[in-house]
Structure to design on (223 residues):
């Protein structure tokens, strides 16, 4: 008997162990081809695709089911130019003054610098925010539980959904990111989490020759 306020769990039919393992293997193989891209083509991407990817992101688990994620998807050229200008201003400060030498050394193999043309070239920028607190119908603050962790999970689902659809992404985190809330006119309880650049990779796109850690390094099984 279903408890009041609860619904039966909607589950896909279990395909059997072997088929389930194969599904997991195929998904892992697909995600293994994901790479962070910094050279984007200006090729348009349908808004409907972005909407469905955000729908997947918003299915993430969250602390007390408060769903503290907020997404602003930007395709407008004028707004993208403003975001680029503000981001590059912060990046110039970062590379010239804020970043410790060891951080710059870690970034050196990736070939990054303060110039971020992809912020205008890519067809979509998705600004991801988390709520520090909520506001009830009477204007009172409501505590948010694990907002950053919850939004991090949602962002992972968003990146996976976009990759599954055949698009490339870049997680961009200029520091500080207060300009995002100002430019996008977000309420004061929302904090920028990251800026996700989305689109098709440029025809001449290259990525750093890096290796991912093997499963035996990052995972342990206690059977």
């Amino acid at each position: 008997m279903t408890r009041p306020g609860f619904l039966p769990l909607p589950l896909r039919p279990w395909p059997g162990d072997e088929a389930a393992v194969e599904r997991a293997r195929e998904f892992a193989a697909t995600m293994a081809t994901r790479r962070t891209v910094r050279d984007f083509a200006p090729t348009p991407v349908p808004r409907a695709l972005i909407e469905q990817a955000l729908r997947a992101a918003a299915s993430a688990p969250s602390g007390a089911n408060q769903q503290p994620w907020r997404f602003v998807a930007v395709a407008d050229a004028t707004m993208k130019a403003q975001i680029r200008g503000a981001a590059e201003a912060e990046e110039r400060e970062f590379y010239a003054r804020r970043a410790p030498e060891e951080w710059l050394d870690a970034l050196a193999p990736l070939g990054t610098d303060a110039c971020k043309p992809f912020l205008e070239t890519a067809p979509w920028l998705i600004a991801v925010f988390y709520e520090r607190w909520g506001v009830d119908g009477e204007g009172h603050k409501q505590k948010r539980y694990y907002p950053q962790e919850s939004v991090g999970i949602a962002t992972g689902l968003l990146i996976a959904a976009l990759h599954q659809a055949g698009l490339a992404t870049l997680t961009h985190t200029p520091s500080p990111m207060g300009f995002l809330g100002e430019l996008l006119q977000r309420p004061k309880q929302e904090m920028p989490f990251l800026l996700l650049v989305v689109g098709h990779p440029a025809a001449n796109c290259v990525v750093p020759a890096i290796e991912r850690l093997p499963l035996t390094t990052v995972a342990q099984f206690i059977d």
Observations:
- The chain has one domain: 37-201.
- The helical segments are 17-32, 47-57, 77-98, 101-107, 118-121, 147-164, 178-183, 215-218.
- The longest helix spans residues 77-98.
